[in-house]
């Protein structure tokens, strides 16, 4: 317990840093994932190509490499922001590709006849997507989206290597102070467990309320 009690503020700062990264990156990933899923099923060919390229590039790029590209590459083009913001961008953009594919799989479960019926009533593509298709698609992808955001929370550990305050990064300071590395990682793992269980609980509630019975 000494590792935790003597360094509670350090663990607290790291825990809050991970929570902030997870929340902000999740919001960005959900927003971008929604946009890209809309592009993937849009009637405009250029939108479909853009969405497909976005997903292909980000899903096949190692997240660490993406962190290097964002945190070290963007400042060379004059975009200077706090490293925390760059970390949110890297995590959010990376995860958006997986959110996009989860949403697209849900869209494909909606019968085509519903979209055709909406269009026959004079609804535009955006109205059909937002008012008819996506509400039904969301119900079938609650669990996959939740799993993706849990993975995002764990992936946030990479940010610690780029001077961003997060939970895993606390081990460096405590190791230098001579504390047991084993117990340090035990408390770090418990912190991540709390975060991931919280996300899982939220999506379990959503699934019980709106999920499709299987």
Describe this entry's structure for a reader.
It is a single chain. The chain has 214 residues and is mostly helical. It has one domain: MetI-like (MetI-like fold). Helix content is 78%, strand content 0%. It is built from 10 helices and no strands. Helix 6 runs antiparallel to helix 7. The protein is elongated, with a radius of gyration of 20 Å. The model has no long low-confidence stretch (mean pLDDT 85).
SSE inventory with pairings:
Blueprint: H1 2-6, H2 8-40, H3 45-59, H4 63-73, H5 83-109, H6 112-120, H7 125-140, H8 142-155, H9 170-176, H10 181-210
Helix pairs in contact: 2-3, 2-5, 3-5, 4-5, 5-7, 5-8, 6-7, 8-10, 9-10
Oligomer: single chain
Count of folded domains:
1
CATH H level, superfamily name: MetI-like
Indicate the mean pLDDT.
85
Any guess at the CATH architecture?
Orthogonal Bundle
Membrane topology: Multi-pass membrane protein
GO cellular component, one term: ATP-binding cassette (ABC) transporter complex
InterPro entries: AA_ABC_transptr_permease_3TM, ArtM/GltK/GlnP/TcyL/YhdX-like, MetI-like, MetI-like_sf
Subcellular location: Cell membrane
Quick overview:
By secondary structure, the chain is an all-alpha fold. It has ten helices and no strands.
């Amino acid at each position: 317990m000494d590792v935790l009690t003597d360094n509670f503020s350090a663990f607290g700062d790291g825990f809050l840093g991970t929570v902030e990264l997870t929340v902000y990156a999740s919001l960005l990933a959900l927003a971008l994932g929604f946009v890209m899923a809309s592009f993937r099923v849009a009637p405009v060919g250029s939108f479909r190509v853009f969405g497909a390229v976005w997903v292909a590039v980000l899903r096949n790029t190692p997240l660490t490499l993406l962190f290097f590209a964002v945190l070290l590459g963007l400042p060379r083009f004059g975009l200077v922001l706090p490293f925390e913001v760059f970390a949110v961008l890297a995590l959010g953009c990376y995860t958006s590709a997986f959110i996009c594919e989860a949403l697209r799989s849900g869209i494909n479960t909606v019968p085509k006849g519903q979209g055709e019926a909406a269009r026959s009533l004079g609804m535009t593509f955006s109205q059909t997507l937002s008012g008819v298709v996506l509400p039904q698609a969301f119900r079938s992808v609650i669990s996959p989206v939740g799993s993706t955001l849990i993975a995002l929370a764990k992936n946030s550990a990479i940010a610690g290597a780029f001077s961003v305050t997060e939970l895993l990064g606390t081990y460096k300071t405590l190791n230098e102070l001579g504390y047991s590395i084993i117990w340090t990682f035990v408390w770090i793992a418990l912190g991540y467990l709390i975060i991931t269980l919280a996300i899982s609980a939220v999506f379990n509630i959503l699934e019980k309320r709106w999920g499709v019975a299987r």
